[in-house]
Amino acid sequence: MKLIYNVEDKPKFSQVIVFALQQLLAIITATIVVPILVNAYGAVNLEMDPAAALFGAGVGTLVYVLFTKGKSPVFLGSSFAFLSSMYSATVFGYFGIIFGAIFAGLVYVAIALVVKAVGSGWLNKLMPTVVVGPTVALIGLSLSANAVADLTKASATGEPYSLVAILCGLVTFFVTIWVSAKCKGFAKLIPFIIGILSGYAFASVLTFIGNSAGIDYLKIVDYGALVNNFAPLTFESFFSFPKFAFVEAFKEIQNGGLTMKLADFGTLMLLYMPVAFVVFAEHVADHKNISSIIERDLLADPGLDKTLLGDGVGSIAGAFFGCCPNTTYGESVGCVAITRNASVITIKTTAVLAMLLSLFSPFVAFVNTIPSCLLGGICVALYGFIAVSGLKMLQQVDLNRDGNLFTVSSILVLGIGGLALDFGAVQVTNIATALIVGIIVNQLLNREKKAE
Known about the structure:
By secondary structure, this protein is mainly alpha-helical. It has helices at residues 13-41, 50-67, 83-89, 93-118, 121-126, 129-142, 144-151, 163-182, 191-213, 224-229, 245-254, 262-294, 299-322, 330-339, 344-357, 361-369, 372-393, 402-417, 430-451, and strands at 76-78, 326-328, 421-422, 427-428. Strands 1-2 form a two-stranded antiparallel ribbon. Strands 3-4 form a two-stranded antiparallel sheet.
């Protein structure tokens, strides 16, 4: 794939702002959904702020870019893998959430030190292309159900299935891929912005008709977040500070609400650290994927130890502000692949923009009015591109060999089938489970081949 902007390229400032906004739109939904889910299922005495999570994602990304020496064009966002851990950790308050993220980040730091000492050659033997390719494809395919669920949902009425919502989502999808494939010049670099704005305009027209004619089925856009933001009109209607995790943690101390004991820290370690070991495998798969897109081996330069340190320390920094441990985002990788813009300047600007806009109330309110079906349409393109990136890796794999065939098939079937391993406080995701089984299958068959 020929990139329009390579890693070290610096587009014009005005273009960079637009590119950054596009990256932000690609990752913002997943980033703010994680704290919303924790609020829904976690302890009632702790409320995570989605705006703080967005700010934390920006901070974490800047830390990641620093550690990777500006060589990896990836944005960090809230990690879904730690949802179960965060559900349980909320009983310990904000301090528990922060320390949980610290323990997870320390796992990355420990692995990075091992890699620094012994190198990463063992990793290529453990996770060759026949293992990584289907795993990357699985990352995209496993998210397809989320994309379709969003695509069918009418935000204004809350209906889980609406043909009108599907129509709006498909309009967004077709405009996005048309602009990406057929347009030239600047438009080709911002297909997601054009797609979302087109879908939003189309959905708004249908919503206006629905409100005028009293037809609820045509109501797609819910403008309530914008209306409530400006009613009443105050300074907070334009600027407001999110509920940063470290600030809320100190409030807990002042109010005498911190009741953590030494044993509780052990519980937090058990909640977070095993999950971090599992997410490490996804970290490798994501970086091999982006490496194939930009045609540079990021595990060699800047090195796996640097990407791990960036991810781990960035995750701690992000949680310090926004509660949520961060991780490299497939949506960001997909955006790079589709737009062919790998400029790290864009990623840096996206991080700063995320931090600034999290303080700008109208933007947060506007994002909350974007219908789920439009984001679903965008994600059909994003997740599909991730899946295809993994399948392209398999072009160099001989699937006529039984060893390769069984390795790939076991990963895809277990992953798409959704096999997750639940050990109570620790849950191994379907992607991690499939990857582990694939590694074992590949190693067993390799041993048999050597024995012959």
